[in-house]
Write a structure and sequence with these properties.
There is one protein chain. This protein folds into three domains: about 60 residues, Alpha-Beta Plaits (2-Layer Sandwich), CATH 3.30.70.2580; about 80 residues, 2-Layer Sandwich (GMP Synthetase, Chain A, domain 3); about 170 residues, Vaccinia Virus protein VP39 (Rossmann fold, 3-Layer(aba) Sandwich). It has about 350 residues and is an alpha/beta fold. The structure holds S-adenosylmethionine (SAM). The site of S-adenosylmethionine has 21 residues, from helix 7 and strand 12.
């Protein structure tokens, strides 16, 4: 049987897709090389010369010609960092490679590297760029989220020095500046979950809105009014930019300052309050209650917790309300071994 790395099958374009599928079924299609088109024909790479029987089947469907032609090859596709770095790192280190990392627009973010991997950080950064060809830069988190603005510190380990990008969550464009304002793509499902509960006409107070993902998800879906508050002026500037780059139905009112300073302005105004400052939300629960309308509303309360029941009991003990119903509670994401960011949704009448 004739073998050639340049073997191809030339077929009229109209029949190309049908023939390609048959070649796949016959294990003849060579997916390492690219299909090209030439006038009315396409040239499909094949792995070997078809048997007489195979050729009969093919020729029954379309007129084909077997030719020798050099075709461009696909770059080898890797599935994960281990595959990219196999042979480039000592084998025992491959097992220590991070299993997860974040892709934020065209920026890759690695949360943590073990001490053994740190001398190889540039190689690992470049490997992540090979794995995701759209990446322009790879950042390594060198200090955990901290301070009033909840900002981590990053080091560039591959690519250009760059911290801003446009990231898309459920079709919503978010301008992000990782150096200046908090953002985590791991909350995308939560942004969407909360937004899916909001009805037309609601007034929502997002007490700690960051660059505005909750507000944007909501205003994209419904005619609601969202007060998006953040103490970090850079975050609020990004909310304003994000409002401009998205088509939204609802209204977003960005407010910059300590959320406590809006206690009079927004007193008894909200049908719904979002409290996404999990480290400190318990301290702000009275304020959230103050925002809720006289006839009641929903609070989405976030916390870090090792025991969700215990956090619920603590939360209930802090609230003196005419009515309190826990609608839902669940783990949102693991933040450290056996510790979770959790959410408790509650309906309250203040
Ligand atoms: C965890 S981030 C919020 C992220 C955002 N909700 C999201 O889903 O991406 C918490 C935000 O609260 C802001 N913040 C902290 N203390 C605040 C306060 N007292 N008043 C208003 N905003 C505050 C921080 O600047 C930060 O942007």
């Amino acid at each position: 049987m004739q073998q050639s790395k340049d073997l191809c099958l030339k077929v009229n374009k109209k029949m190309g897709e049908k023939i390609r599928k048959i070649l796949i079924n016959m294990n003849l299609f060579d997916d390492a090389r690219k299909i090209i088109s030439e006038n009315d024909y396409i040239i499909i790479p094949i792995l070997r010369y078809p048997s007489e029987e195979e050729l009969d089947i093919i020729k029954n469907i379309a007129e084909v010609e077997i030719i020798d032609m050099e075709l461009p090859s696909h770059k080898k596709r890797f599935k994960n960092l281990i595959e990219v770095l196999d042979g480039r790192l000592p084998p025992y280190l491959l097992t220590l490679l991070p299993r997860s990392y974040d892709i934020i627009g065209d920026i890759g973010v690695i949360e943590d590297l073990s001490d053994e991997l740190l001398p190889y950080k540039e190689i690992i950064g470049k490997a992540l760029m090979e794995l995701h060809s759209n990446l322009k830069t790879v950042l390594l988190k060198v200090e955990k989220v901290s301070g009033k603005y909840r900002l981590p510190k990053y080091e560039v380990i591959a690519g250009e020095e760059k911290y801003t990008t446009i990231h898309t969550e459920y079709g919503i464009k978010l301008k992000v500046d990782l150096q200046k304002a908090y953002y985590s793509p791991r909350l995308a499902t939560e942004h969407n979950r909360v937004a899916s509960q909001v009805k037309d006409g609601e007034v929502v107070v997002d007490m700690f809105s960051g660059i505005g993902p909750f507000a944007l998800h909501i205003a994209k879906r419904v005619f609601a009014k969202v007060y998006a508050i953040d103490i970090n002026p850079d975050a609020v500037n990004l909310i304003k930019e994000n409002i401009k780059i998205n088509k939204i139905k609802g209204e977003i009112i960005p407010l910059c300052g300590d959320v406590r300073s809006f206690s009079d302005l927004l007193k008894r105004k909200a049908d719904r309050v979002i409290m996404n400052l999990p480290g400190e939300a318990m301290e702000y629960i009275d304020l959230a209650l103050n925002f809720i309308k006289e006839n009641g509303g929903v609070i989405h309360f976030y916390a870090f917790s090792k025991d969700i029941e215990e956090t619920k009991t603590h939360l209930i003990s802090k609230l003196s309300t005419r009515k309190l119903d826990i609608i839902n509670m669940k783990k949102v994401r693991e933040v450290s071994p056996r510790e979770w960011q959790i959410v408790i949704d509650l309906f309250v009448i203040p």
